[in-house]
Design a protein that fits this description.
mainly alpha; about 75% helix; globular
């Protein structure tokens, strides 16, 4: 009994720690999705990321590379784009290229691992995103329905010229981000966090550092470990830097920098619900193939350049203060609880009204 309680306690602790690491970026991702919903109409998204098999995929990858969204912050943004008309390939391309790069991550990679590694990471992320998107668009049949009401306002659905105040736009951003969109994926987020907590508890991060090999085996190992766990694009850099300083090949480090930020069980869970199992398979297969190939190629060309041993700079894992992480978790849990209570209240009212109607009919 004590063993079971300790096991549950450990899982809950790791799940909450994972939630703490993710919550600030999740909140930012939801907020960013709300901004996109206001300033990018469904018609605009559908026009650029909807029709077509190649163009939308490339545009989504280019659009996602500079955005400072992590593998969890990108979830609500990508789902929002999908709901606004982006096709499957463009959505997958955005999901891969965005969390693996970002302006902050690119600069951090440059400072710790040098210009070659930074440039190579950007190119590899772009290739992985485009590769995944093209496979999805050419293998999944999808009919893009033209959206009606090209001039309809996303705030009030009016099709006549009018004006909304900043306050009205801000209210809509928060309502869409933290009510409508969060309601759609909150259950899957919590499920993914719980699964992530189980994985973290059973396979601690220290295992990677203590038992990491070299060569192609190391790349496979980093791929298998990087896919399910949560690590942001910037936070993964000190980990790779430390492992490379201890002798890990740059190719294995590149595999982790691509697979780690691009995937985690939360993203996989939400993606399976929103896009289907086939999209998940394409998503994981594309990342696996491109990351391994990118790692092998990097090992071949790495010897042509001098490795700058400045990778011990900023070797810390705490990107944000603890109070910000915990506070963000409490805010996110409060918002989800509010949604849950609201659903229960609406369900209770519906049952009550249905009972009153039956009694009046009798």
């Amino acid at each position: 009994m004590v063993l079971i309680l300790n096991f549950l306690k450990g899982i809950l602790f790791e799940s909450f720690e994972l939630l703490n690491k993710m919550s600030p970026y999740l909140l930012f991702g939801f907020f960013f999705a709300g901004i996109l919903r206001v300033f990018f109409s469904p018609q605009m998204v559908a026009r650029h990321l909807g029709a077509g098999k190649v163009g939308p995929v490339i545009k989504a990858a280019l659009f996602g590379i500079p955005l400072p969204l992590c593998s969890c912050g990108v979830i609500p943004t990508a789902i929002s784009l999908r709901k606004q008309g982006a096709n499957q390939g463009a959505t997958l391309s955005f999901l891969i290229s965005t969390p693996t790069t970002g302006v902050d991550s690119i600069l951090a990679t440059y400072s710790l691992l040098g210009p070659l590694f930074a440039l190579y990471r950007v190119v590899s992320s772009f290739v992985a995103g485009v590769f995944s998107g093209l496979i999805a668009n050419f293998s999944i049949r999808e009919t893009v329905q033209p959206l009606e009401g090209d001039n309809n306002c996303v705030l009030c659905d009016m099709d006549e010229p009018h004006f909304h105040t900043i306050r009205e736009k801000a209210r809509f951003i928060f309502h869409y981000a933290f009510s409508e969109l969060l309601q759609d994926i909150s259950k899957w987020l919590l499920l993914g966090i719980l699964i992530g907590g189980i994985i973290t508890y059973l396979i601690p991060r220290e295992f990677i550092e203590n038992y990491l090999g070299s060569g192609w085996q190391a790349m496979i190992f980093m791929l298998v470990m990087g896919i399910p766990i949560y690590v942001c694009a910037t936070g993964s850099i000190p980990i790779v830097a430390a492992l490379m300083f201890k002798g890990m090949s740059p190719g294995a480090g590149m595999v982790f920098l691509l697979a780690g930020p691009a995937t985690n069980v939360v993203t996989i869970t939400v993606l399976a619900k929103e896009l289907g199992k086939k999209s998940v398979a394409i998503y994981l297969l594309s990342i696996s193939i491109i990351s391994i190939l990118a790692g092998m190629l990097l090992n071949q060309i790495w010897g042509m350049f001098t490795f700058q041993e400045n990778i011990l700079v900023a070797m810390h894992h705490e990107i944000l203060p603890q109070w910000v992480e915990v506070g963000s978790s409490l805010v996110l849990l409060s918002l989800i609880t509010r949604i849950y209570l609201k659903e229960k209240l609406e369900s209770f009212k519906e049952k009550r009204d249905a009972g009153i109607s039956r009694n009046q009919g009798n």
